[in-house]
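Weekend entry, working from home. Most of the wet-lab plans are on hold until the incubator is repaired, so I used the time to fold the two sequences that have been sitting in the queue since the last round of cloning. Logging both here for the record. First:
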Amino acid sequence: MEIIEKLNAQINQILLDQEALRVEKEALQFELDSIKNKNDELVRYNQDMLLKIDSTLTLVKGKENDSK
């Protein structure tokens, strides 16, 4: 009987550990998704900035050509 009680205690501990790991995994997945969203947002912002820089350079070149 003592062996069965020890095994049951170990099984219960394993189940508790498994649940704790599942909760931690979900929290980490949520954090990862949040970081991916922020990264996508920054990539879009950088692309917008590059487009604005490119259009500004095009306008400046156009004005330089018009003044010649």
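Second, folded right after the first finished:
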Amino acid sequence: MTYKMHNMNTYYQKTLDFQEKLKQYAWNIFKTYGRELVMRLEEYNLLQNKHNCIESSTAIGFVLEEFIVSKLEMYTHSGSEEYIVDRFTGATASESFDCYSIKDGTKFMVNVKAEKNGQANNALAAIGQLHRNYCIEEPKQEKSFILFKVQYSIQDAYEDTVDRRAKPRCLYIDELSSYCL
């Protein structure tokens, strides 16, 4: 019993450590942009008009999820990070997670969720996908499933310049949180 408890504590500690590092990496990425992200297409800020159709759709969530997965992959492949984040080949919709990292025999599967301030995104991958990824595929592989939430709001960007023009509206990263299964 003591051996199993020790292994469970080690597993839990590894999972907590990974979650903290993941948050640290993401904060470092978002700090680069002052926690403000402008969504542009052909130099036009898609959020500039307060009555745009993007804000009320799931488009921002998909764009933000892709942004953070891509940036985490680039950031951790710089050579100095403890965990390396990779994405799998194939469509994200066919898996329960968006990216993963393997360290010390544990595969950390990360499902990134964007959540607008004041709303709840409690969705998780379809149970069939989660069961297949977590239980059926690689049955001998130790795994940890991480739900990584990026909470954001939409607001005017902060500009502190002499030639102030209309402040662009942006995605502002409010908070990061993570949970493990």
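Plan for Monday: verify the second prediction. Residues 85 and 101 are 5 Å apart (CA to CA).
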